[in-house]
């Protein structure tokens, strides 16, 4: 039973480790400490290994739980009910929670408030689009975190961050904000801007 509990604990911890790089930005936003967002982004390359280990460990735990028990001829009392932590119900709860943790990067963006703004521009020649190359984004939650910080600035018309492209395309009114202010907003998230340029 102890080995079973250890397996469950290992599966639980590896599942959290697999999604820690995407959980941290949401926790940072909720705590109001957005600079911590990229703290665990270095774990992202190891995510497939964590996922594999989690599935393996939980698979072994389930196998041990459902495999037929050997019958022993004994006159002793064996009808003792297992504790909750040793039950299939507990293992089922851990498995569901683990699945939710592994899938977290797919739905992390729902935790970010919508920050789309209505912008009134007097002169269309003031509208500029700039690209910011960003290092450290690993999932859709990271994208939302960058967009959330950029959209706090006045004059932002649209911000589209992409972790796959490692960038953010920002359309803004140059009379209300500028490239340097946008770079500062991105840097507040903990991700680093490696390059910036205006695009047509």
Give a concise summary.
With 200 residues, the protein is α+β, with helices and mostly antiparallel strands.
Biggest β-sheet: count, sense, barrel? 4 strands, antiparallel
DSSP strand tally:
4
* Order of helical and strand elements: HHHHEHEEHE
Q: Which of globular, elongated, flat, extended, rod-shaped describes the shape?
A: elongated
Helix content: 40-55%
Count of runs of 4 or more consecutive helical residues: 6
Name the average pLDDT. Answer: 76
Structural class of the helix and strand makeup?
alpha+beta
Strand order of the largest sheet: 2-3-1-4
Low-confidence stretches: none
Strand content: 15-25%
Termini Cα gap: 64 Å
Into how many domains do the coordinates divide? Answer: 2
Mind telling me the C-alpha Rg? 24 Å
Written account of the structure:
- This protein has a 4-stranded antiparallel sheet.
- It has helices at residues 2-31, 47-66, 88-102, 104-107, 140-150, 179-188; strands at residues 127-135, 156-162, 167-173, 192-199.
- The mean pLDDT is 76.
- It is of the alpha+beta class and 200 residues long.
- The protein has 2 domains: 2-68 and 84-107; 112-199, Alpha-Beta Plaits.
Topology at a glance:
Elements (H helix, E strand, L loop, with lengths): L1 H30 L15 H20 L21 H15 L1 H4 L19 E9 L4 H11 L5 E7 L4 E7 L5 H10 L3 E8 L1
Antiparallel strand pairs: 1-3, 1-4, 2-3
Helix pairs in contact: 1-2, 1-3, 1-5, 2-3, 5-6
């Amino acid at each position: 039973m102890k080995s079973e509990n250890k397996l469950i604990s290992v599966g639980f911890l590896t599942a959290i480790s697999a999604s820690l790089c995407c959980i941290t930005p949401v926790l940072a936003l909720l705590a109001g400490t957005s600079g911590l967002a990229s703290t665990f982004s270095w774990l992202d390359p190891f995510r497939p290994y964590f996922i594999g280990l989690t599935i393996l460990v939980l698979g072994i735990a389930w196998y041990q739980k459902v495999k037929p028990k050997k019958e022993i001829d004994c006159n002793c009392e064996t009808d003792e009910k297992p504790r909750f932590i040793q039950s299939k119900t507990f293992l089922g709860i851990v498995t569901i929670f683990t699945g939710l943790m592994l899938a977290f990067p797919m739905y992390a963006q729902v935790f970010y408030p919508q920050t789309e703004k209505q912008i009134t521009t007097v002169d269309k020649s003031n509208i500029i689009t700039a690209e910011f190359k960003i290092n450290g984004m690993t999932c859709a939650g990271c994208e939302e975190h960058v967009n959330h910080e950029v959209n706090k600035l006045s004059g932002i018309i649209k911000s589209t961050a992409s972790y796959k492209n490692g960038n953010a395309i920002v359309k803004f009114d140059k009379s209300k904000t500028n490239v340097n202010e946008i770079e500062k907003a991105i840097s507040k998230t903990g991700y680093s801007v490696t390059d910036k340029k205006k695009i047509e």
